[in-house]
Amino acid sequence: MKVRYNYVKKEDVKYCEEHVTVKEAYDYLSQTGYRSVPVLKDNGKTFVGLIYKVHLLEHFVERNGKDDDKISDLIANKDAFIYENDSFFKTFITIRRLPFLAVLNEQNEFSGIITHSNIMDVLEDSFGMKTGGYLLTIGTKEHKGALKDLVTAVKDVNIEGLLTLDNGDKYLRRIILNLSGDLTEAKLEQIITKLESKDFRIAAIEKITN
Fold first, then answer.
1. Where are the domains of the chain?
2. Which one of 11, 16, 29, 103 is most buried, by most CB atoms within 10 A?
3. Which residues form the CBS domain (predicted)?
4. 115 phi/psi in degrees, rounded to 5
C-alpha cells in the first residue's frame, strides 16, 4: 500500500510561506488552532520544514524577539517528509513524535501531509471498524505456515481484515482476524471449533458494528 492513497491533499492543508513574519505565523496558528503547520516556499511548491507555535512563543518570551522577525531561524524538522510512492507503513517508523509528515511527489513538490489520524484510519480498517463483523483475537505458537493454516481453516468465509502482532517473537504470536458480520452464531461456533482443533487459541471475540 502506497502513501498516495492515504494522505491529506494540499488544498486541504493549512501552511505558512517561508517569508512570513513571526507575528504573522503566530496569529495564523492561533487562528487555525494548530500547534504546527508546514512551511513552504516557491508559491507553495517546495517543503521547507515545520513551524511550531511553542517555538514562536519562545522567540517572543525567551529571546525578546520582534514581531517583524522572519520565521526562517525557527523552522524545524526539515527532513519531515515522505514520498507519495513510499510504502504507507514507512510512516510508522518516520512519523513517531512528529505531528505529521509532508508528502512530496516525484518532482519533490509538496502534495499534502500524512497525519496520525490517517494512520489510525488504516488501523481501524484492519480491525474492521469500517465494515463491521466479528473480531477474533487468536493466539498461536509461532511456527512456519501458521498464517497459511489459519487462512485455510476459514477459507469458506469472507475475511474482512487480518493483522498480526508480536512479529519476531520466537514463541507466541497474536493474530487479529476480522470475519464478515453476516455469519450466523452456529457458523461462527463451527469456525472456532475448527481453529481450536488446529491448536489456535481464541483469546477474545468481539462484534464490531459500523
1. 3-120, 127-208
2. 103
3. 8-66
4. -115, 170
